[in-house]
Amino acid sequence: MSHSHHLDAALDESFDSWSEDFNGGNASSLKIVVAPDSFKGTAPAYKSSEWISEGVQSVIRDAKIDCVPMADGGEGTASLFDGEEITLPTTDAAGRLTEATYVFNATEARAYIDVAAASGLPAVKDNPVPLTGDTYGTGVLVADAVSRGARTIVLGLGGSATIDGGTGILAALGINALDKDGHALRHGGGALVDLADFDTAKMNIPAASVDWILLADSAFPATGERGAARVFGPQKGASEDEVELADRALARLCEVTGVDPDQPGYGAAGGISIGLTWISTLLHGTADHVTVVSGSKTVAQAQGLPEKIADAHLVITGEGNYDDQSAGGKVVSTVLDLAKDAGTAAAVIAGAIDAKLDPDVLTVELGDAPDPNAPDFNEQVREKLVDAGAQVALDYLQRP
Q1: Rounded to two decimals, what is the model's pTM?
Q2: Rounded CA gap, 364 and 393, in Å?
Q3: Residues 267, 243: Cα–Cα separation, whole Å
Q4: Which of 294, 322, 55 is nearest to 157 (CA)?
Q5: Does the keyword Kinase apply (predicted)?
Q6: Staple partner for 213: which of 154, 168, 171, 208, CB 3.0–4.6 Å?
């Protein structure tokens, strides 16, 4: 008998006794919101919310469950917005040919692009490129969107493999980084320690002058102890020496561009906001055409999540791993803040929980992810998340 069958058997008795007590036996008046992020490399947010809900429903059969897939600017953010999916050839962070998809809304003249789509970490995980990788491939998507009529680019800053300060995007828009002798710098963020100027002679002005809404997946600044290199460099494959070099490189980029490195959110996606703020300010004379906002809070507002949580008895969120970075503006922390404000019970499901949570928050750890090469990988993932949803429901019913 599988773990889920054991769980089903254990739950029937609990549900029957509890449902008589809840609002005169009216279990259908229990409202639950399921609002997870993607479980990276395992399940996209829409699937994880569906499977967790399935588990909850196996325990609390008549509950009203509202699935609200979430994102923080990382992979899957663009797909949560309305528009046409555009797929085209571009390059990954290592400069290899790939394909990437973004969402274009012609009515709004707006494109929704995830940096993770072209410049994401999974494509180079086996051979990381923290100092030599760039965001050129994301710039190709930006230029394509503008050619279709986009005047606003909503850029999801999360899941990137790069620490290039957005200079790869600038290169795709015809803006090249130069050293003190006027020679073009090699690709990647590491070379920016030698940055002296930019060549804008071949700039794609329509693309560079769009309005930018940058959805940061963290509130960390560009440089320093809590900066892009030190916080995110190791997970992008950077050694201690490479982290120090990348931090110096971003500091040099800020110095040359005149961008304040201490602004919250400017460390997201390897400092992309730095390069985009500089070029926008150069063209418009002000930084007013660049807005850096919390990706998770923006998506939450777009999904009507604050109102849904306020009207719910329980909200369940989750991600692949809950750690110290999670509290820096990612989905789980945003959902928990909304639940706390609303006085709504909350639960977190994660592969591992490595940071402190409020003792009132229910938790379920999934353990190691199944082998992605296994033929029944998706079914294994589904079973883990269904079981986790059922466990949360059981724990919720058994609270004192």
Answers
A1: 0.87
A2: 11
A3: 13
A4: 294
A5: yes
A6: 154
